[in-house]
Description:
The complex is a heterodimer of chains A (659) and B (242).
Chain A: E1 4-6, E2 9-11, H1 15-60, H2 65-77, H3 81-104, H4 141-157, H5 181-211, H6 228-234, H7 245-259, H8 261-304, H9 309-313, E3 317-321, E4 340-344, E5 349-353, H10 371-387, H11 392-397, H12 399-405, H13 410-442, H14 450-480, H15 484-513, H16 520-537, H17 546-551, H18 555-593, H19 597-609, H20 612-633, E6 653-657
Antiparallel strand pairs in A: 1-2, 3-4, 3-6, 4-5
Helix pairs in contact in A: 2-5, 7-13, 8-10, 8-13, 10-13, 10-14, 10-15, 10-19, 13-14, 14-15, 14-19, 15-18, 16-18
Chain B: H1 2-9, E1 20-23, E2 41-44, E3 55-56, H2 58-62, H3 74-90, H4 95-100, H5 102-108, H6 113-145, H7 153-184, H8 187-216, H9 222-241
Helix pairs in contact in B: 3-6, 3-7, 3-8, 6-7, 7-8
Amino acid sequence: MADHEVDGRIRYGHEIGYEWRQRRNVFSVDKLLALADTGYRYRWANQEPLARQAYLVDDWALLSPIANFQVLSYFLARTTLDDSFFLGKAGRTYRQAVIAYLNGKQATSDQRWFSDDPPDQQPMIATPESVTAAMLVADSPFMRARLAWVEEREKEAAHDPRRRLDLTDLPRFGGRWQRSLPATLEQMTPGLVMLILTLGASIVIALRYFDRYDPTSGDEPTGWMPASRGRSTSAGTPGPIARSAMRAVFVHQLQDNLKSMRFQVSLLVLLLFFVANGLAHGLKIERTDQETTRLRAVDGQSYESARTVRDVADRWHRIQSDPVGTEFIAEGGFNWSYSGQWVNPSSGQTMWTTLSRTTNNWMRRFEVVDWVVIGRYALTFLCIVLAYNAVSGKRESGTLLLALANPVSRAEFLIAKFLAHFVILEITTVLGCAISLAVLVGTGVLAFDAQIARGCALFLLCSSLLVSLFLLLAIGISAISTSSASSLVFLISTWTVLIVVVPQSSYLIALRSVESLGAYWEEIDAIQEAFSESVRSDGLLPRDPPSRARQDGYYVERAYAQRLGAMERELDAVRRRVDQQMFRQYEVARAINLLSPGYAFQYSVEAFFGYGRAARAGLFATGLALSGRVARIHPQQGFRRPGLATLAVPTRFLVVPVN
Amino acid sequence: MRKAREALDEVAIYSALEPEVVVPPQPLSILCRGILNTAGRTMRVELDRIQIASWPLQESFESAIMKSLAQIDFASVVALLLSFLAVVLGFDGISAERERGTLRQILTNPVPRAHIVLAKLAGGTLSLCFPFAIAFGVSLVIMQSNPDVNLSSDDWLRLLLLFLLSCIFLAQAFSLSLMVSVLARNSDTSLIICLFGWLVFGVGYLNVVPSLSRYLVYEPPYQVFQDQDARLYADYDRDMAD
C-alpha cells in the first residue's frame, strides 16, 4: 500500500519502488514479446490447416462455373480469407512499428511505463525505511493520514496536463492493408482463365456441332444422347388389362422410369451425394472421437489436481456437448458455435463458449453434407425433374388417351403414377443410405447399432413424407399445366423459391425484425468499471496479508464478496439478455425457414434426434443443474475429493473443468 | 473506430498503449459478403499476443448463432439465380427451333450457321445482362444513398469489373446451356442435363466440397493449442516469480 493505483496507473510511489519496477519491467516485457512470438507460432500451427481447408474450397471452385464466379467476385470485393490475412499482416507490421517506437522511447525501462507521475512528484511515503508493518495496515492512523494526502493530490491530478502521455509521434497505421487492383487481378488469373476457356470451349463446341446439325424435326433423334424417354413411352408394354389396371399402369411406369436416362442420371447423382456423405463423415467421426478422448483426458487431469470441493466450485467449468453418433444423418448444428457452455457454480454465472472443439470459423458459410441436406436439395429436386411431365408428357405423346381408354379410374391412374415414382425414389434413397452406412461401417469408424437403425428408420420416414409432398406437387402441376415445359418451369421456380430463396433470406429478415444486440459489450465494461470504482472508493479491497483480516472477522472481505456477487449477477443478467435476444433472432429465422418444406423436414428430423434447438436447451439445462449441484456442496468447506464423484454429468455431456 | 481513438487518448502510461486498428469495411462487401462481415474489421496491437487474421468487430462476432443460417448476397444471387435463369433461357435455344420446324426456315436463308449460334448467344446474353444491369444499378443507388458508404475510385473500378465479370459469367452459363441444346437435340433431355449441371455445380458443389476439404486436410485439435498457450503463460508466471 505504499502507492496508489488508478486504472492500472501507479501513483505517488517511492523512487526505490519505481526503480525495482523498472528493472522488473525490462525483464517482463522481453519475456512477453518472446511469449507473443512463440504463441503466434503455436496459433499459426493450429490454424494453418484450417486456412488450408478454406483455401482448398476456393481453389477447387475452378471446377464449377458457379462457384468460380462466386470466388472471383469475392476476390474483387476483397472479402476472401486471403484479404483478412492481408490485413493481419499489415497489423503485425504495425505492431512492430509500435514496439520500435516504444524501444526508441526506452519506454520499458522508464517510469512512465507504469506511472503517470510527473518527475517532481512527491511520494506518498517519503521515507520507507522508517515505516513499520503495523503502520502500513489500511486503517492505521499513519495510513489514514497518507490516504487523506492522496485524496488531496488526486484532485490536482485529475487536470494535470503533465499526466497525459504525449503520443503525437506515435506511428500511424498505414501502408498497404488491402490488395491493390493489379494484385487482385493476379489473384483472379486462374479463375478468369478458366471462365474464358469454358466460355470459348462451349461456343466452339456449339458451333462445330451445329454445323453438322440436322434441322429436320425427325421422329427418331439421332444425337449422341439416347433420348430414350420419348421412345420408351411409345415402345412400352401394351395397354393394361382390366383385372389389374392400376397395377399395370404402375408396372408400366416403373419400367419406363428404369429405362429412361433421366432416371438413371438422377439416381446416379443421388447416390454420389450419399457416397460423398459417407466419405466426409467417416473422416469427421474419426476426428471427433479423438477430440473427445482428449477433452476427457484434460477433464480427468484437472480433477486430479483438485483437493477440496472449493477447488472445483470456485472456477469455470466447461460443459461440452458430446456427439451422439448420428451426425452423418443430421448434423443439427453440431458444427455451430455454441457447442459448449461455461458455468461457475459459486457465482451461478453461465456463458456460451465457441472454442472448446475445433471449429473452422472460416468455413461457416457452408453447410455440411449430411443426409438431411441431401434430402432437402437433391431429393426434392429429383421429385420435380422426374414427375414434371407425369401427366402432361403422356398427353403430348398421345398415350394418355390410350391409357384412359382402359377400365382404370383417373384417381387410380394418378395413384399408380405416384406410387411408381415414389417406389423408385425410396429404393434409391434406401440404397444411398446403405452405401453411406457401408462406407462408414466399412472404414470402422461407426458401429451399426439399434440407435443408428432407429435413426435411419426415422430419416426414411421423414424423407418419404418430403418425397410424397414434392411428387404430389409435381404430378398435380403436370396435370394442370398445358405443356410439360411450362410445368417444369413453374415447378423449378417454386423449388428455387422454397428451397433456395426462403432459407437464404430468413437470416436477413430475422436480423431486421428483432432489435439488434446493441453495444452490450460496453454495458459489460461499464458494470465492471462501476464495480471496481465503488470497491476502491469505499476501501473494500481484500487485505493482504490476510492475517489482519482474520482478526476482525473478514468484514472488509465479506463486503467485497457481496459486491462482487452483485456485480456478477448483473453481468449474468446482461449475458442472458443478449443470449435470449440472439435466440429470438434465431427463432424468427427458423419460423421463416419453416415455410420451406425442406427445412420443415430438416427440423423434424432434428427434433426426432434431439439435435439443434433441443440440444442447445438441453445443454443449457445441464449447465444450470450442474451449477446448482456444485453450489449446494460448496458451503461444506473442506469437503474432500470423493464427493466429486457425484459431479459426473449425464451421458450426453462431458464436463471439463478449467482454471 | 471512434472508440479506438478515444481509448488511445486516454493512454497515460506506455504499458497501456495497445492501439486498436479498425479499418473501414470493404464497401463491396455489401454485394459480395465473402467470409468477412460488413461491420468493419479490427486488429489489436498487444505485446503478448499476435493476431493471425483480422477479426470482425465484437458485436457481429458474438451473434455467431446466426451464422448457422445461410446468408444471401448479391454474388450468390447472380451465381445461383441468374445462372438458373440463363439455363432456363438457353436450354432450348436450338432444339426448340428444330422441334417447331423454324430452324429449317432460318437455314434456308443465306446465313452461315455460325452466325446463327453467335446471334443466339449474343441475344441471350444481352437479354440476361439487361435486367441484371438494372438490378445492379438499383443496388448501387441504394448503396450510394447510405452516408456510411464511401466509394473510392479504386472501388468504382472494381464495381465496373464486377459488372463485367457477372456479364461474362452469364454469357458463359448461357453458352453452356446453348451447347447442351445443340448436343442433346431433344429439348427435354437438354433441360434435364442443364438442370443437373446447375444442381451439381451450384448447390451440390457448395455443400459437398467444403465438407470434403474440411476432412481431407488434417486439423489439429484446438485443445492442443490451448494447452500450449496455457503452458506459455504458466512459464512466464514462474519466470516472473523467480
